[in-house]
Amino acid sequence: MLLEALIVLLKAGFIVTVALTFGAVLTWVERKQSAVMQDRIGANRAAILGLRLIGLFHILSDAIKMFTKEEFTPERGDKFLHTLAPMLSLFFALMSFVAIPFGDALRVGGRTIDLQAADLNAAILFVFAMVSLGIYGVVIGGWASENNYSFLGGMRASAQMISYEVTLGVSLIGALLIYDTLNLQEMVRFQGHMYGGWIPRWGILLQPLGFLLFLTAGIAETKRVPFDLPEGESEIVGYWVEYSSMKWGMYMFTDFIEMTLLSALATTLFLGGWQVPWLLSDGFHFPWGSVALPHVVVVVLQMGAFLLKVSFFLWLQMLIRWTLPRVRYDQLMAITWKYMLPLSLINTMVTAVILLAIR
Amino acid sequence: MNPFSPVLLSALFVGFLVVAMLVLSLLLGPRRKSAVKGEPFETGMVPFNLPGDRFAIRFYVIAILFVVFDVELVFLFPWASVFRELGWFGLAEMGFFVAVLALALIYAWRKGALEWE
């Protein structure tokens, strides 16, 4: 019992640490990738003993800066809720990772450990519940600041997030119909087969439209460019205007962690999760022959594949973030209610008809 | 072991992390209060009204639409998980349900609830 609890804590610790690390590195990637794309040098000043390491120490200096800044709550605002709001945001963003499978079963000393902190049979519903609860952080933060700008920012953010959450959910139903389960680990196992020995059975090939809708809705849900109207760092005042120090840092960190969450979800649902093409639990099975591998190597390869796919989606989101201009608010609402929601409903129904017809 | 006990354990762990971040920031940062600093940010002006009484009706309409369509979503998930057993009958039922909701969406659209001016 104690050992099981320890294993769960280790697994949760691992995936949460991965999420935090990705979040921290993304603060640097955000600046560095924009610099590369705009032919600048980008963040490179922070150094330890003259060692610059292409600016990676900026993560550390940012953390030190945010921890040592003055923390204040606005005089007229609700002090308790003002403090609680960013914590809610970060808490629920990190909790979503608990249900994400990051590897196949690991066998150690007669024990089989499923590489997933919590093996829930309705994992996808759990993740959606956590994402929805995360909206409270934004609304409460905007409201408790007792400031006109942050109040409007909070309303803007919540209207956007709840609108896109509907599409985010419906766009997935098509994929769920194919996988015939709500369990994320089973979905990944389903994607392990190969069609004709060459084409992996990944969700992106079975549900291309669903994938595009999911990714778009997900980017809007994480409040990133081109849907970054809640923040609009260059011209609009957002819901976090009355925040400082690490309380503000938590909001910013939540954004990056939600980006990682979206990448992890897209990987799990549409890009085969931890699956490596041709890699089964005992080694590679290529169409032209097999290579046997020890169990540990297979597990490490699969976890590496998961992290690589997540990194790919993060890179893609950064590329989108520094390429597209921001949409207008009426366009933002029109995109989801008038185009994406009907499209995802049609996608669901067409998928269901095809699945029953070929059964 | 109950499948949700790992969730509880992780919640304790994540909760500890989040609280630790806040407490560290409270301990390390300076605290110098002043009357002006406590005022709401209003681009340098003294605010003459504060939020809380009125806001745009659009947000309310969006919230109602969200409730309507999120409930639809809740019904789609269980259908998706037993879809194969229900077969064509289940699909026809769900098709009818989605058609009614599509009608609701068209109604909201025609009434101008989706316009944002």
Oligomeric status of the shown chains? Answer: heterodimer
- How many domains of chain A? The number is 1
CATH class of chain B: Mainly Alpha
Helix content of chain B: 55-70%
How many extended strands of chain A?
7
Shape of chain A: globular
What is the CA-CA span between the terminal residues of chain A? 44 Å
Order of helices and strands of chain B: HHHH
Structural classification of chain A: mainly alpha
Helix content range of the residues of chain A, please? 55-70%
Number of discrete domains of chain B: 1
Structural class, judged by helices and strands of chain B?
mainly alpha
Residue share in β-strands of chain A: 5-15%
Q: What number is the mean pLDDT of chain A?
A: 91
Can you characterise this structure?
The complex is a heterodimer of chains A (359) and B (117). Chain A has 359 residues and is mainly alpha-helical. In chain A, 63% of the residues lie in helices and 6% in strands. Chain A has one domain (2-358). Chain A is built from 11 helices and 7 strands. In chain A, strands 5-6-7 form a 3-stranded antiparallel beta sheet. The longest helix of chain A is centred in the first third of the chain and has 36 residues, at 2-37. Chain B is mainly alpha-helical and 117 residues long. Chain B has a single domain (5-111), classed as Up-down Bundle (Methane Monooxygenase Hydroxylase, Chain G, domain 1), CATH 1.20.58. At the A-B interface, helix 1, helix 2, helix 3, helix 4 and helix 5 of A face helix 1, helix 2, helix 3 and helix 4 of B.
